Here is the input.
Amino acid sequence: MYDFFSPYREIIPDFNSFIDSLNRPAPIHLRVNRIKAEPEKVVQILEERGITLKPMGDEGKRFFEASNLKSSGNLPEYFSGYIHPQALSSCLASMVLAPHRECLVLDMCSAPGGKTAHMADIMGNSGLIIANELYPTRHIPLGHTLTRLGVLNVIYTEYQAQEFPLKQRFDFIMADVPCSGEGRIRKQDESSNSYPSKPHPGDKLLDLQKKMILRGFDLLKDGGTMLYSTCTYNPLENEGAVQFLLNNRDAELLPIDITFPHMNGLTEFNGVSYDRQLYRAARFYPHHLNSVGFFMARIGKRG
Ligand SMILES: C[S@@+](CC[C@H](N)C(=O)[O-])C[C@H]1O[C@@H](n2cnc3c(N)ncnc32)[C@H](O)[C@@H]1O
Here is the structure.
């Protein structure tokens, strides 16, 4: 584990604590789905079942760590669509993009739908979200998620995100792109010592991410906002992709204003400099926020 991540020693603060955190399983986080349920009521029901809920952040009792829960998938509240198990860092992406009610939203890479459903919740199930996912088999879990959670403001498409038709422009775009997934590497459970196999982005993936961020930006209305996110620490997939956008389009990085612990984006790695604006991006590490490692950049198109 240490060797695998050692290229990031210089950029991850308190590196030994970071490695220690990877040796512990990630906690289960639950998001309360306000489309179907009142957060206070759901908390009461779950606590009556003996589930210990720790509120995460001061965001009005919507996100909880369920410390003594092994799995949420067999709870009646899961089937009823009152709760959705979702990594906290993944929840933050939709919160940071913060799509407005009645707006037109594109989710470029939607399955299995955690962020799509959360955006629908934030939008009060109003407006319209285009949930795009390339692989037909991934539309099945996507449909199940959105149906269970009572989402009504979504239609599905099946395009290559990097070639999504330019006929329509969007107010908000979620570009939660395919990535090497390093942020998901954690010890799986207390009894296991096995880790996922070593991922590596490869030029094809890096190229795809660059094409997606460019197409996402081109699909924005003037004055629109896009969130580019990954669950990896690799600067090539994160700051590198955003830098590619800045080199090729008149994009600006917008501040990310959240109280959850995070570090700024990098402006230098391995002798490569990135635009100063990159400090406005956010990096989430599991020893700061006990969840999936994550990167996000909020990008604006000038009006
Ligand atoms: C990081 S996952 C998205 C997770 C999702 N946003 C969520 O919160 O549940 C990336 C998704 O992109 C899909 N994908 C891969 N290549 C794609 C492409 N060229 N165009 C559109 N989707 C693609 C993958 O099948 C995968 O479902």
The domain at 88-301 is CATH 3.40.50.150 (Rossmann fold). The chain has a mean pLDDT of 94. Residues 90, 109-115, 132-135, 138, 160-162, 176, 178 surround S-adenosylmethionine (CB under 6 Å). Residues 202-218 form the longest helix (17 residues).
